[in-house]
Amino acid sequence: MMSTWTLFFLFPSVMAVSWPSGTYTLIKPKSGCPSNWKIGWRHQDNEDNNNQNSVSSPHHFAGFSNGSIYWDDEDSNNANDKGGVLPSGTYDRNTRINYCCRSDGSSSTAIRLPTSRPFYLLRFTWSCQRVIGMNVREEFVKTDDEDYNNANSFSGSHPLKSEKYTNRTVTISKNTEMWNEVFREHQNLSPHCNGNLEWDLSMEEKWGSAWRECAKCTQCAYKSKMFNLYEEVASVKRGRRAAKINLGLQVGLHHTPISTASYRKICMASNIPPPSISGMQHTANAISEKIEEENMRDLQRQREKIKRIKKIRGENPDVVNIQSDCVYNNAIYSGIGKTPFQPATQCAYTVAENETYKHSIINTLPKSKLCSKRKHTVSTNVGEHAGPCTANINMQDSIGNEERWARECFEELKEDG
């Protein structure tokens, strides 16, 4: 029986305050306990045969609602032991640890805790509690407990509860295939077993919004192989193929005003483990070029369509009535009296046809002064700094020069014929 503890290791970047008053327990890192804290230890005798205990690598190891976790430790020749000051619980042939958990606030709102030494926090929800002056890294401990007639259990609020009572996004057909295969395999291997089959959440793998899962039996030692519960994108390249749901998500986000952070908030409010920010950004970077290419082809198709309509009307296809306008990420007038600089850093100039009732957009021109400082290492066309740059105008250029943007748009239309 496998159990996984997910912990967040926080290491200092600045100094902070003292520890809150009260009696509570933290897991001890290699750097030691905070000053004047009492130390205790617990030795758990886990499964002897084919033990699969593991920890994340690298690691730094040396749980306000009530709840507990119970470990059914090794039955044969049990060697559990303990010492020092331990948290509330039972420490005999088996192990029970009591916890106080809370999730009434936003984990993204940083709190103040002492930062002179690294420490661990046990995760109650899917995101780590931010702490002012600390950097965070996720680590885990996986315990392989008694395999036969395992009696592991939990109650109330505890660090493992979020795993079992959250939602997942899976492809229905893939989920059906998994359970049909699992039922048949379990019946063949353990025909007399009356245990329940369930997802083994200690083994699941999250890839963006896609999931890989396996099943286990609550009574016998049966465990299935891993199943992809998502559809993959066909590819001739080597390596892991992309999940359709991850690419589709980015296509949708590109057509809406919400950001990665906003989508993650929606997921967390829906009790769905959200994709990581870095993973979503990586996918967005990969798909944005494809979206841009398709948008350019679509604009070309719209221009050809307007020409055909003009020809059908018996009119000159080279003369098209248009309207144009520019939008900014920040209103130009919002900086009046506040700053001598223009508050906008990005704009999009669009040209729409006035020949049909649809007023379809036939050309667009994006301009940006924003760039990634991380990429300032190689040359750029803008010339202000080194590095591949998303900025396509200089910082000193007037972003409100709509005459310039209109001229560039019309020159592109002229070249297109």
The mean pLDDT is: 78
Q: Give the count of helical stretches.
A: 6
Structural class: alpha+beta
Q: Output the strand order for the largest sheet.
A: 3-9-1-8
Coarse shape: elongated
Give me the Rg, rounded.
29 Å
Distance between termini? 70 Å
Order of helices and strands: EEEEEEEEEEHHEEEEEHHHEEEH
Strand content: 15-25%
How would you characterize the largest beta sheet? Answer: 4 strands, antiparallel
Uncertain parts = 54-64
Number of strands: 18
Helix content: 10-25%
Architecture blueprint of SSEs:
Layout: E1 2-12, E2 40-43, E3 54-55, E4 65-71, E5 81-84, E6 89-91, E7 95-101, E8 119-122, E9 134-144, E10 153-156, H1 161-164, H2 172-189, E11 197-199, E12 205-207, E13 210-213, E14 215-217, E15 227-228, H3 244-254, H4 260-269, H5 277-313, E16 322-328, E17 346-353, E18 361-368, H6 402-416
Antiparallel strand pairs: 1-8, 1-9, 2-5, 3-9, 4-7, 4-10, 6-7, 11-14, 12-13, 13-15, 16-17, 17-18
Helix pairs in contact: 3-5
